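Entry under discussion copied across for reference:
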Amino acid sequence: MVQKLLQALINNLGVKLADSRFHELTGFNTVNLNFYPPCPNPELTVGIGRHSDAGMLTVLLQDNIGGLYVRKAEPDHASPGNELWVEIPPVHGALVINVGDSLQILSNGRYQSAEHRVRTTDTVSRVAVPIFNGPLPATKFGPFPEIVARDGVARYKEVVYEEYLKSYFEKSLDGKKSLEFASME
C-alpha cells in the first residue's frame, strides 16, 4: 500500500523513476510500538513533542483513545508559541498517513511534512503503531531535477539519508528544525 501511494505521489509530480531508484528512495521500513501511560496532569507532560517524521511516509494505526495533534498551517506572521493544533480523532479501522521530510525534500517543498505531537490523558493509556518508510540509509537524495527545472530553484541540497537521520535525532524533536540540515534557504 505504501509503495503504491508513494508511486502515485511521485507520478503526480511528473517524475518517472527507474525501479532501482524507487527502491533506494522507499526501501527502508521500521515499525515502532508507542505506549503512553496515563498522567494525572496531562497538561504538564507531552507524550511526544512537536516534530515531523524524517522519512517519506508514516502510516499510523491509532487506538481509540486519541491524543494525536497536527499543527495547522498558519500565515508566516504567526507568533511562535501561538500555533493552532488540531486533534486527529481516531476512526476505527482507519490509518493516518503523514508526509515526511524526505518527501518534502524530494518534491522541493510541494509536499509538506506534517508537524505533529502526542498528548497523554489522565485516565487511560494510549498505544500507537507507526510504520516509517524512507530511503535506504546510504541513499543520496535531493529535490527531483524535473521539479527544480520547473521551479527554477532548489530549496534543498542533496543529503545522504543516514546523515539526515543523525542530524534529525540530534534536534530532539524540535518542530521541523531537522529540515534546516537540507535547506538551501
